[in-house]
Amino acid sequence: MSLIAAELTVEGRLEEVTAAMQTGQVTAICGPNGAGKSTLLQCLAGLLPTEGGLVALDHRPLDQMRSCERAQTIGYLPQNGEIAWDLTVRNLVSLGRLPHRDRGEAEVAEALSALDLDPFAERPVSQLSGGERARALLARVLAGTPRWILADEPLAALDIAHQLALIGHFRRTARDGVGVVLVLHDLALAMNYADRVIVLDRGVKAADGDPQMALSEDVIARVWGVPARWLGEPGARALIPG
Ligand SMILES: Nc1ncnc2c1ncn2[C@@H]1O[C@H](COP(=O)(O)OP(=O)(O)OP(=O)(O)O)[C@@H](O)[C@H]1O
Fold this sequence. Notes:
Elements: E1 3-10, E2 14-22, E3 26-30, H1 37-44, E4 52-57, E5 60-61, H2 67-73, E6 74-77, H3 89-94, H4 105-114, H5 130-143, E7 148-152, H6 160-175, E8 179-183, H7 187-193, E9 196-201, E10 204-209, H8 211-214, H9 217-224, E11 228-231, E12 238-241
Parallel strand pairs: 3-8, 3-9, 6-7, 7-8
Antiparallel strand pairs: 1-2, 1-4, 4-5, 9-10, 11-12
Adenosine-5'-triphosphate binds at residues 12-13, 31, 33-39, 79.
């Protein structure tokens, strides 16, 4: 098992947030706009220097790892990622193999298939819809076969069928020993599919634990300021406002 442990303060954005995540689990990071979710994910990926605190992967501070090793180990999907060149989808996804310095044709093919991109593989990315583009960017991360997947709102642009297919893929990947950390705005997806939920509120941790506890109606009322009720059975819950 691998572990990422963080103890973080980022001026004006995160205040003494501690978190420890393990492989084999899907961890969701939830919270209102501006709560610090993307900031936390960037810190966990080693992309944002932290003034106070530390992020360690298996007790090794991330900033002491070589960038190549870090890139092989941690796959990061930013929110609204840019695509600088008008590559074909296959070539974009192949960029995920850069840290490994190989073509990784089998891994690229697997990632294309996991994201249902085979019909678009030879198409320039400029000719994709928003959701297809989001899937191509995530496929690039998966092609790198990282031990950790850190993805910022990976489901936001996807239709319900692709959301469910992808969350199923994340769950299987976690079962195979990968650590999956997802920023999610959809609280029902977090409730039904995450093993663990971290809730941030204005830069501080408001809850951390199993989804039933971390996303209780009380927490939702306190953090989001919205009265809401959970209906349905565990694993198939729906959040009803009011
Ligand atoms: N580059 C930056 N420099 C300074 N402050 C920033 C920067 N990026 C974001 N912030 C601020 O830090 C806080 C946390 O931002 P962050 O993007 O982490 O929030 P978030 O929870 O991901 O929000 P959202 O749900 O809107 O994506 C916000 O108040 C934001 O305005």
